[in-house]
Amino acid sequence: MGRRRKKGDPINGWLVLDKPLEMTSTQAVGKTRWLFNAQKAGHAGTLDPLASGVLPIAFGEATKTVPFAQEGEKAYLFTIRWGVSTTTQDAEGDTIAESDVRPDRQAILDALPGFIGLVQQVPPKFSAIKIDGERAYDLARAGEEVELESRPVRIDAVTLVDMPSADLAVFEMKCGKGAYVRSLARDLAAVLGAEGHVAALRRTRVGPFTLDDALTLDALEDLVHKSAALDALLPVETALDDIPALAVTDGEAFQLRQGRPIVLPPRRASELRDLRKPRSIAGRDYSKAVLALENDRAVAIGEARAGKLSPVRVFQWDQEPE
């Protein structure tokens, strides 16, 4: 029995979508996959329907690099509306508490340092975290009591950007994987003795992907009509920009694609050791990770150890559409 032909085209690369409001991340992936007629697609980090901004979408071989993109630093611009707390900690939820307290600028500035660094944070009940195989937001919407444990998250910076009125405060947050803006807004309001929820949220960065590279759906559809959609894609290697790169020969590339290690001469091995840094991806130690490139194209992500480079993830390139 022959191999079943895959539906769609073998599209490979990253699209940085400026996700619109009122669209889920899954819907955005489905829409862009349809526009490209791509065989395979996935995204690097969920954005809530009421959030807009950077949603990196991986096609084809780029899906193998999604875990690396997810580990990158995130940046958000968001607005807290004081006076009302909601079930979802954003504008979508029902009101659960109200207050006349409106924190002033100095009170906010005094409170922010307590939220920077490695901090404990309880995720929102309405989140995509799984509990016994079920999404927390599905359980919450069904009226079940959802209890989520606090967990450590890294918040690199929280800056007060603007205060358009007594009811509103605009912030920028830079953080690591797993930090929730809605949780920070909830906890900040509590410290300030106020009620509050996220009234607007826009993601401006995920690792190497920024708004400067982002396209709206309308702009992407226009490119599709002009048969120029492939021009919008960034290389698969974009998500691996902080991994040491190693140029390999055609013969070495063939070996790696076959799943076999290649020998690293002492000088090359020493140079790679100097570039190492602690790196954990999806619970696996990638501190010895190296990106093997043949003519500037990804061949494999390998592990440099004992004078050899052993492939961990191998990229296979089918014939791509022109």
Annotate the secondary structure layout.
Blueprint: E1 13-19, H1 25-36, E2 41-43, E3 51-59, H2 66-70, E4 74-82, E5 84-86, E6 95-98, H3 105-111, E7 117-121, E8 130-131, E9 134-135, H4 136-141, E10 151-165, E11 168-175, H5 181-191, E12 196-206, E13 209-210, H6 217-225, E14 245-247, H7 250-257, E15 262-263, H8 266-274, E16 280-281, E17 284-285, E18 289-294, E19 297-305, E20 308-314
Parallel strand pairs: 3-12, 14-18
Antiparallel strand pairs: 1-3, 2-3, 4-11, 4-12, 5-6, 7-10, 8-9, 10-11, 12-13, 15-20, 16-17, 18-19, 19-20
Write a structural description.
The chain is α+β, with helices and mostly antiparallel strands. The chain has 3 domains: 13-71 and 209-237, Pseudouridine synthase; 74-206, Pseudouridine synthase (2-Layer Sandwich), CATH 3.30.2350; 243-314, Archaeosine Trna-guanine Transglycosylase, Chain: A, domain 4. It has helices at residues 25-36, 66-70, 105-111, 136-141, 181-191, 217-225, 250-257, 266-274, and strands at residues 13-19, 41-43, 51-59, 74-82, 84-86, 95-98, 117-121, 130-131, 134-135, 151-165, 168-175, 196-206, 209-210, 245-247, 262-263, 280-281, 284-285, 289-294, 297-305, 308-314. The strands form 5 sheets. Strands 1, 2, 3, 4, 7, 10, 11, 12 and 13 form a 9-stranded mixed β-sheet that branches. A 5-stranded mixed β-sheet has the order 14-18-19-20-15. A two-stranded antiparallel ribbon has the order 5-6. The mean pLDDT is 90.
